[in-house]
Every structure is written in structure tokens, then in C-alpha cells.
Amino acid sequence: MFNIGFGELLLLAVLGLLVFGPDRLPEAVRRGSEVLRQLRDMAGQARQQVVDAAGMDESETARVVEDLRDLHPRRLASAVLNPVSDPGQDSSRRSTGLDPDLA
Length: 103
Hints:
103 residues, single chain
């Protein structure tokens, strides 16, 4: 989730030990994990409420997200400059998408 390696984890443990001390560190870790769990639950509930309010199911939501990804400028430029040829179109006369007279 956070992409934390062993070195970073060790650094966080030493930092936590210095900040909280050995007596309060276990309680701080417990409280931190509890807060993180609550945040995950709240994010899941908020996501579910948005999906319910929009009246869409999971597959429709995934389709809408994919449609939004297709609007990325790089994908749009790629689609214009390198169009997918139609199955009925002669592949030797593939259009560049820029000028039909140049094909």
C-alpha cells in the first residue's frame, strides 16, 4: 500500500522510539493502526455512498473510469495519430487520421 521497504521501516521504528520512547511506543503503534483502519473504513463507506448515489453498479463504474482514462491527452493523441484500422478497411490504404487525400 505505502511501498515501504525494510530500510524505511527500520528508520520509522527508530524515529518512533526516539519520539515516543520505549514505554509509549506500543500504545502509539496500536492507536496509529486503529486510526488507519478507521480511515480505510470511512473511505470504503464514502466510495459506496457515491456509487449508491450515482445509481451505478461496479461494472458500470469501472467502464466510466476507463472512459475517463481514454480522455488522457496522450491517449487522445495516440488515437488520432495511430488509428486502429477497421476490419473491412484495406490495411494497405490505412488512413493517418489527418488528411483523407493523403491516404
